Every structure is written in C-alpha cells, then in structure tokens.
Input
Amino acid sequence: MKGIILAGGTGTRLFPITIAVSKQLLPVYDKPMIYYPLSVLMLAGIKEILFITTPHDQDAFKKLLGDGSQVGCKFEYEIQEEPNGLAEAFIIGEKFIGNDRVALVLGDNIFYGNEFGKLLRSKTEVDGASIFAYPVKDPQRYGVVEFDENKKALSIEEKPDKPKSKYAVPGLYFYDNKVIEYAKKVKPSARGEKEISTLNQMYLDKGELEVGVMTRGMSWFDTGTVESLDDATEFIRVLQNRQSTMIGCIEEVAYRHQFINSNELKIAIEKYGKSKYGEYLKNIIEL
Output
C-alpha cells in the first residue's frame, strides 16, 4: 500500500496566520503539523508517500521533509492547483499509485490511540474501502455517516445542514486500486468540489465500504480552526509531558519499525542538535 498526504488548501479559517505559511507547516506544540499525519502512514508500515501541496508551498515541504530517505521512506510531491476537493487527490496521484492500494490522510488531521498502529496495519490489505466514524458535537462540519441499529452504514453526506447522526468521518481513508476509476467519476458538488463523501458513497452503494467506529480510547483532531488547533496543541503538550513520550515523532516511528538503524538515527540526532526533539531522540537510542 502507498500513502497520500493532502496538504493543499488555503487555510482561510486560520487567516491571518496562514496567509504566508501553509496550515500544515504550523506548529502543533513541538513539531510541524505535517509530522502527525505522516507518522500515521508510517505506523501503518507505508514507506512510499506522496505529498500534494499548493504551488507556492511545495518548496517549504521539500525543505522540511526532503526525499524521505532520512526516515527510510520515499517521498514524492505533486501540486493541487486549486482546492477542488479531496477526491481529486487520487486523480493527481494516479501515476504514483500505479496498481497498488492507497491510504489517504489529510495533512491537518491528528490521531492518537491505544493499539492505533495495529488498527492501521489491519487496513493495508483492504478490498474495497475502509473508513472510520467518530462521534462529534458539530457533525455538520464534516462528512457524516448514517447507521442502522446494527451500526451498518446506510449513507454518507458531506457537511449536511441536518446531519442524520453525530458520527463524522475523520480524514483517514484506505482504498483498493479501484479508487482511481471511482474518483474520475465523481462530479463536483454544489460547493464546486470533488467530495470524498461521494467517493465513499460509491463504495457503499456497491457493498464495498467498511466503516469502523473509533472507540473511546482514540482521539481525533481536525485542526482547521484556531480553537481546534489550540485544543490539539494542548492535548499533545499534556500527554507528552505526562508520559515522557512523543506523539508524531517520525524518526522514532522509523527506528522502532526498523525503517532506519541506530546509525541513521544518530544522524537525525545531530541534525536536531540541542532541541527538545533532538534530546528525545537521544534518549531513545540510549534505552
């Protein structure tokens, strides 16, 4: 399975913060936001990852992340000229995906949970599509899943005025290779975007969509607003300081999953110097 991180968009809900810098490069406590979704794909065992960015932000992402070799991965980059919807990611990434399955994670989504890596790795051989549902207080902001009494998905709507449930779809999706063909059939919505909910509904209509409800032990943040960005930062700060472990540390994920060896980790330690991040990596190698 390959992975795509969609890090485009203009971040208008965060203006003026995002006028000069991509939302996905903003700090969430002690690391760039993009590290969190990247670590999710790496936890799933995915090493080939495509970053889709805006034209003017791509150089900054390349400067930060490079070609991925420092974490035992292979990174590629493509441009989304306009924010035409999430489903367009699979059309932009068609050549990159090739004949493989693909996972898509949104660059402004943060996930945390017990056994989360195990859950992710269970999705990499998906036939059809696999998505998640998470209970929220404001489902009208998201794609919403309607369930029957047996928690079987009935429908998926994008940002409905009258949500049929409290279950939002987080920005993490797993698909088989048919996703490219389906994405090409998605017509723009009234908002002018190729909606990911339309794509998921296509899989649902064919009986090929699995929807898993995230348990209470899992947390999800969509950091698209100032409030949610602040909430995510506070969550990461409190959790890391209490547990003395980092969330979203890509070098740690790479080392623990044997993407890189101790010598390669030492190179990263030198790169980060005396920063808190570098000191944390030094502790990992000394354990």
